[in-house]
């Protein structure tokens, strides 16, 4: 499981073939089965092959993390607020104002059932498994952002692909610097929950 050929095949199946196939029209139950099988495989490799330890590092600099995340969030919030205001003002904060219970429910489900699993696969597994294959750190981060955007191809929305590519760069940079699944998951959850809150949730598959 550690040979270059095996990892290359693994990479192609998990990060290219499966995401692209999800953009095709076939049974959602089959897609769910493939997704769960792939996720359990990733967890198995992390635990049994890569010997990943799921624990919170004591060396985390929380002050720096919250400061940098807050700055990035303010920039993202301003840009997305103006975008929704200019393109679809009726959607601006619609769910939080008119369906607060749904808003809370979606934020909870999104954070724990979507964000954390995504970060386990696309940051923890990806960096742990393929870091040695990239001599240039820039290529590692860029490739990570590309496959993360590819994972959202099933939305069939150009804006979603652009947003997830940019988000992928931010998350890859955070994980590469920390590296912490917890921190990158928190950052991912903050930005994603904001997009749903400000009125961009529908294009990302959130109910509205």
Compact summary:
This protein is mainly α and 208 residues long. It is 74% helix and 0% strand.
Mind explaining what this structure looks like?
With 208 residues, the chain is mainly α. The protein has one domain (57-204). It contains 8 helices and no strands. Helix 6 packs antiparallel against helix 7 (158-177). The longest helix has 31 residues, at 100-130. The termini are far apart. The mean pLDDT is 93.
Question: What's the arrangement of secondary structure elements?
Answer:
Blueprint: H1 4-21, H2 28-49, H3 62-87, H4 94-98, H5 100-130, H6 137-150, H7 158-177, H8 181-198
Helix pairs in contact: 2-5, 3-8, 5-6, 5-8, 6-7, 7-8
Share of β-strand residues: under 5%
Structural class: mainly alpha
The separation of the N and C termini measures: 43 Å
Low-confidence runs (pLDDT<50, min 5 residues)?
none
Into which percent range does the helicity of residues fall? over 70%
The overall strand count is 0
Supply Rg. Answer: 18 Å
Question: Which shape, going by the Cα principal axes?
Answer: globular
> Mean of the pLDDT scores?
93
Q: What count of structural domains?
A: 1
Biggest pleated-sheet summary: none
């Amino acid at each position: 499981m550690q040979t270059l050929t095996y990892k290359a095949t693994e990479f192609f199946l998990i990060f290219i073939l499966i995401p692209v196939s999800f953009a095709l029209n076939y049974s959602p139950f089959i897609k769910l089965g493939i997704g769960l099988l792939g996720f359990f495989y990733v967890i198995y490799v992390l635990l049994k092959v890569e010997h990943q330890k799921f624990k919170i590092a004591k060396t985390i600099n929380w002050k720096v993390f919250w400061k940098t995340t807050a700055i990035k969030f303010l920039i993202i919030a301003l840009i997305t607020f103006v975008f929704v205001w200019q393109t679809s003002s009726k959607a601006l904060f619609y769910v939080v104002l008119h369906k607060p219970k749904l808003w809370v429910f979606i934020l909870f489900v999104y954070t724990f059932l979507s964000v954390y699993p995504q970060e386990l696969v696309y940051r923890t597994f990806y960096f742990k498994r393929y870091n040695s294959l990239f001599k240039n750190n820039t290529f590692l981060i860029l490739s990570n952002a590309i496959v993360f955007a590819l994972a959202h191809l099933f939305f069939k929305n150009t804006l979603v692909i652009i947003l997830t590519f940019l988000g992928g760069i931010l998350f890859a940079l955070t994980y590469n610097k920390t590296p912490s699944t917890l921190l990158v998951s928190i950052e991912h959850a903050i930005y994603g929950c904001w997009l749903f809150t400000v009125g961009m949730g529908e294009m990302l598959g959130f109910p509205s």
